[in-house]
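[Target chain]
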Amino acid sequence: MALGSMTPPREADDVLETLLEFPDNRLLIDLCGEYDRNLAQVEHKLGVQILRRGNQLAVLGEPEAREQAAAVLLALYGKLEAGRAVDAGEIDGAIRLGGSDDGTGSREGDQMELFLGGHVEIKTRKKTVEPRTAAQKAYVQSLFAHELAFGIGPAGTGKTYLAVAVGVSMFIGGQVDRIILSRPAVEAGEKLGYLPGDMKDKVDPYMQPLYDALNDFMPGKQVSKLIEEKKIEIAPLAFMRGRTLSNAFVVLDEAQNATTMQMKMFLTRLGEGSRMVVTGDRSQVDLPRGVQSGLRDAERLLAGIGDISFSYFTAKDVVRHPLVAKIIDAYDADEV
């Protein structure tokens, strides 16, 4: 039964509650979760009480909180109707976005269809990826809209993960011919020359987060084959020198560890038909003392160019364990 057939939220006459009616009782069970843990998460986050009455949910609490909880529950039910699972991360994302997802998903077969009733999603081979905060949503939109985009903020905010997801989406949709992922191989404690193995063995540990992201979106065998065919490249930043990167989706991760000259070198690799994304965290610079971060210089020099987008994240956009956001806040407060 369609989402639109649900009874809209209404105020009960004698108590401060909002009633929601759900036509499919099996989906309602999934919405509630095992031992109603999904409802408990919404209750805890929004300060409401949710009671189940047959195929209805009654939301009790202050008007604004009830309204937001109702919107979140409707959005999550819409995901279930569309065949998507609802887990703790999806619930957290719906709460952060205020339940703005209409649950209908994107139009069949169109990798680039982002704007359907305010809904944003990225389709890859293995999963559909959705932003979980307003900043992430704006970031994803900017990745599709601009040839050069920056994502700047603390760890755990999805900067690189979402960029790789968009790259995979554009690759399988035919918008680009290659995916190129790069990071500065900055030595932090160990000298590369002291590590065992050939050059690939030495630099692969630095690139592992990029491999992890790719394997999240594409089958492992397909990733390996595409790497063999040079349709996916994962390489240190130094390997970009002297190249022109055309018809490619290019991501520079950990850009705070690029020097000013390296950043200029990388940005000037942009070729026809390519998209370039630069991600970094200004609080985690591993460059030697006295060496200026190329990311900071790029912000200062390029901020006035209209065709380049800058997206910023804070601890509120962290989508890892909730403690990560608190740790970031603690460190930020100590620096003030």
